[in-house]
Structures are given as structure tokens and as C-alpha cells.
Amino acid sequence: MKIDTQIVNKLAHLSRLEFNDAEKVEMANNLEKILDWMDKLNEVNTDGVEPLRHISAEINVFREDVAINRLSQAEALSNAPEHDSDYFRVPKVID
Q: How far apart are CA 84 and CA 82, in angstroms?
């Protein structure tokens, strides 16, 4: 399929992008390469090949959701630049 600047202009408008003339030519070439690649993929015989639904055959492999205290409050506050007794001190962001 031949991609011209009119198609690039329409796609740019729909995607709210702006291209100069050189970028439009480059974009048209890139889109043509993508469509050529898709045509090449359509030539592949996929009869009898099931669609890939998941990357692996594993189903519902989750770890247990168990709460673990890995750091004590004192350990967490020890690396803080500023802290006030039990809390982190941060700059005020809302007036």
C-alpha cells in the first residue's frame, strides 16, 4: 500500500501530532515498511496454529499475600533525611 502525505496528514491530525515536511516523508516511509511487514506476515501459513493467549502455560501462579514486617520503624526512619519522632518530615506542598 502506498502511503502519501495526505494519509500522514490525516493520521497526524487524528493523533494530534505535528510533523514538518521532512518528518512527513520519513513517517510515510516508516508506515510503508510497517504495512509491508504485515503483508509478509500474512503470507505465513498459520493453519492449525492456535492463537497465543498467554506467554506461558502457567495458570494462576501467585504467591501467598502475607504481610511481613521487613523493616522496623526505627530502621525505616534511620535513612530519612529528616524525621520527627515516629514520622518522616517532608517539605510542605499545600498551603
A: 7
Q: What is the enclosing helix (H) or strand (E) of 32?
A: helix 21-42
The reply to whether 72 falls in a domain is: no
Look at residue 34 and tell me whether its pLDDT is greater than 80: yes
> Own/partner pairs for 30-37, CB < 8 Å, 24+ apart?
31/3, 31/7, 32/1, 32/2, 32/3, 35/1, 35/3
Greater confidence (14 vs 79) lies with 14
Minimal CA–CA distance to 81: which of 91, 93, 72?
Answer: 91
Provide the domain limits for residue 33: 5-42
Global pTM? 0.50
Distance of alpha carbon 79 from the chain centroid: 32
Residue 94 maps to a domain = no
CA Rg value for the chain: 28
- Look up the CATH number of the domain holding residue 16: 1.10.20
